[in-house]
Automatic annotation (TrEMBL):
UniProt keyword list: Oxidoreductase
Stretches assigned to the Acyl-CoA dehydrogenase C-terminal domain: 248-387
Source superkingdom: Bacteria
SUPFAM superfamilies, A to Z: Acyl-CoA dehydrogenase C-terminal domain-like, Acyl-CoA dehydrogenase NM domain-like
Keyword Nuclease annotated: no
Protein name: Alkylation response protein AidB-like acyl-CoA dehydrogenase
């Protein structure tokens, strides 16, 4: 089955929506920051230095508000333009788009609600530079569908209690997007919890071999206070959220591929040592090495093209939210989900292939920990492992063959009869 293509959405709210701006003007604001971030990326990876300064620079420059309409203090960037920026940021340091993933999803959720005082308050926070982290996943003795983190009333206040892992970006955040349940009735909610209180404890204990500085460790909530207005029914969550979250992985992979291309070209250009059985007196003139770098460049180009193409349906889904046509909105959400799944499959392949092929252009000196070139493969492999690609391929295949719509929300936990493993 062909991926659906939703029609252009007609709606009366164009002035209030973020439908795009001049990309080069937008990117020019951030490229000097990206360049500075890139200069320290290898050292941060080697020494596990958390990029607090890099995050602060992005916050101060208004990076977290680019999706807000201009009238609300943002840049009016479209979703494809956001991901184009994220590809550039990932090429500088692929940990940073991942660290900001929850923030932009939380912003996106508020972009999808009707204007009211709560939206105004959050828009003001985003415009002032405040960012949001994530705390959704639980580990240990937790079954699929079970949520142990609870929101309850205590001494006249709402409080959150529980522990989360893979809580990406929380170390850098002012707020945390917490997936929890109301203790009173078991309903699923999002609790927006301020990090500026003693009831929130954040730990940098993420032990993955890649994406080591994303701040993806444990977050504990011990009677963490949450305002009643910041406890939101999960059912309200924006409908293309899964596709939006996965597009961050695609953009990160495309940025990694671009970083590989950059490093391969630079190191070959400046390399002095040659092999006696090579093809030229300088490596940059060796036809076989040129071929290696050319292949890397082609894979990077393809990953970027796939990422940007896959972001277009998400923009259509966003605009369809305001189109007063439920069927068109549903078709747009299906299109966004299928596009994100297909792009993950291909971008993962391109980035991993490029990160491995890099070493075919260089000698054994390229394995030096000083260069930290292995981070490209480690980071790509880690990003590609977040949501199993085999399931993505099955979902796409089932859609192509049978027209089976993709799942829009999924969970992870212990299966029946398998204990805690």
């Amino acid at each position: 089955m062909t991926t659906p293509r939703s029609a252009p959405i007609q709606h009366p709210h164009d002035a209030t929506l973020s439908t795009g701006t001049d990309y080069e003007t937008l990117a020019a604001r951030f490229r000097p920051i990206f360049a500075e971030i890139a200069r320290g990326a290898a050292e941060r990876d080697r020494e596990r230095i958390l990029p607090h300064e890099a995050i602060a620079a992005l916050k101060d420059a208004g990076f977290g508000a680019v999706r807000l309409p201009v009238r609300d203090g943002g840049a009016g960037a479209s979703i494809p333009q956001l991901f184009q920026l994220l590809i550039e940021l990932a090429a500088a340091d692929s940990n940073l788009p991942q660290a900001l993933r929850a923030h932009f999803a939380f912003v996106e959720d508020w972009l999808n609600v009707p204007p009211d005082a709560d939206q105004r308050a959050w828009f003001d926070r985003f415009a002032s530079g405040q960012i949001v982290g994530s705390a959704w996943s639980e580990v240990g003795e937790v079954a699929v569908g079970q949520v142990q983190t609870k929101v309850s009333q205590h001494d006249g206040r709402f409080v959150v209690n529980g522990a989360k892992y893979y809580s990406t970006g929380t170390i850098y955040a002012d707020w945390i997007d917490v997936y929890a349940q109301r203790e009173a009735d078991g309903s699923d909610v999002i609790a927006a919890v301020s990090t500026h209180q003693p009831g929130v404890v954040r730990e940098d204990d993420w032990d993955g071999f890649g994406q080591t500085t994303t701040g993806s460790g444990t977050t504990r909530f011990n009677d963490a206070v949450v305002e009643p207005r910041n406890v939101i029914d999960f059912a309200r969550r924006f409908k293309y959220q899964t596709a939006f979250y996965q597009l961050f992985h695609v953009a990160t992979l495309a940025g990694i591929a671009e970083a590989v291309q950059r490093d391969a070209a630079e190191l070959v250009r400046t390399r002095k040592r040659v092999y006696s059985h090579g093809n030229a007196p300088h490596v940059s003139e060796d036809a076989q090495i040129q071929q290696v770098v050319g292949e890397i460049a082609a894979w990077a180009y393809a990953a970027r093209a796939v990422a940007l193409q896959a972001a277009e349906p998400a923009q259509r889904a966003y605009e369809a939210r305001f189109g007063d046509d439920d069927a068109a909105e549903h078709a747009a959400n299906v299109e966004a989900e299928i596009a994100s799944a297909q792009s993950q499959l291909t971008a993962s392949e391109f980035a991993l292939r490029a990160a491995t092929h890099l070493f075919d252009a260089l000698g054994a000196s390229a394995t030096s920990t000083r260069l930290a070139l292995d981070r490209h493969w480690r980071n790509a492999r880690t990003v590609s492992s977040h949501n199993p690609l085999v399931y993505k391929a099955r979902i796409v295949g089932d859609w192509a063959i049978n027209g089976t719509e993709p799942p829009f929300v999924w969970q992870i936990g212990n299966g029946p009869g398998r204990g805690s493993k």
